[in-house]
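User: Can you help me understand a structure? I only have the sequence.
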Amino acid sequence: MNLNSVIMTLEYFIFVLTTFLMTGAQSEVTEVFAEAGSQAVLPCRYSSTSYDSPGILWIKTNKGTVWRKQKSGLQFWGSSWSQKGIQRVHCPHSQFERGDYSLQINSVREEDGGVYSCTVEGQGDEYMVMLRIIRVSISPSVPISGKDVSVTCDVTPGPQGPTVQWMLNDSPFLPQTGILETNGETFDSIVREKATARLTGNWTCVVGYKGKEGRASAALSVKGIIQPATDDTKVYAAVGSAVTLPCVFTPGLIPALPVWEKLQPVSHLKPAASRLPASFSPSSQSSQAPWDKSAILKEVGLKDEGRYRCSGTVQGQRLARNIQLIVATIDNSVPSKKKGAGTLTCQLSDTSEVTEYEWVHVTYDPSATQSFRSIQKGKTLSLNQVSEENWGEWACRFSGKEGNLGNITYHVQMMSGLSGQKSSGFSYTTAAVVGLSFLLLVLLLILAQLYKNHQRRKGIFQYPALETIVHTISNEREERERNPMKK
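Assistant: Let's start by predicting it. Here is the structure, written out as tokens:
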């Protein structure tokens, strides 16, 4: 041992002995919680009446010196707190004038947990702090949907009789199976569940003890079908349009024996499979990822509404997701008592998630640019007169609590039931056809009259044989008149 080490040891002994003689006892232990990997702050505050920089000593029970500063300003770190010139602990000198000598520990580890003491030369009692490290771990780290998963909250050193509350995505979570374990060194709270999409998110363990509270978090992701994220997700489509039924597995997770089915409700709440629509086509594009098993309905019909199921096998586990297809259409009608009026009604096969309907008039300028004008709210749109203002494209937008769900469009020109009292109720094409037909009829009548007059001038009869007889009789009469004496 060299001379400097002997001097430092002697100074430390005198410092502790002097402090002990001055205090004669130690103060109550303060509880501090810190999440593993974060920064922990161990409080040590005294009322300062001197502007001189005091000597400060931080030690950990059974581990020796953590950090020490002499009145001269020299600082020393324990061997386990300084590695390759990088110190994990320090005290902000800017706080010393306020009597704050709190110790900051960066990137705390489970082995950092324990009792620390702070002693300020000439300030009386030791300041005792219990540092407890909280860590949340998940096993397996990324579970397969349907298999067991454990979420564990470790507290080191373990307190006696703490309160524990679990939070999932900032909402309280009541585990179906919960276990509390204490072995003296650590305290564990374990949640065991079947991995499902509802467990995905941020898990937080909140620990309370002696009026103090600490928390730690970990993110849980479940491998399986990630789109749609939940079962019985609703997909909206308009009649005649194409729609994609999503079925996307976790990237890199390629399912075996993928199958699509259309479910038909039967008794005992067990759906039976029925025939898929004629326009149904499982996606098989070469550019599509092998874990994307989405399907396409090329042309949706009214009978295509209902529930569909996508399934596949991953690591011996059969994964499935149900999707409900909701079909939208527009019904047009004309009241018999008001021939110049009509209504458009937005119809959906399931309206359980719809909270609002909005009718929008879509128009186009000469450059084919769309413009939208909201007309009214409500499921039904009344058109009192079919005028040029009503021509064009109408869209019914339907929304829910989460925002827009979908829309369906309709062209007024195709509404034969809305022919009004005025010619403006017809389309331009219909008016042109009617006008040309009338002109052609007039021309035919004129030609017929000209032909009739021409026939009259020529004195041509309809029957040639009768014409010959008449001419013969007429010639004989003329001959007798010229020769009256001749018999």
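Now, to help you interpret it: Confidence is low (pLDDT under 50) at residues 1-26, 414-427. DSSP finds three helices and 34 strands in the chain. Let me know which part you'd like to focus on.
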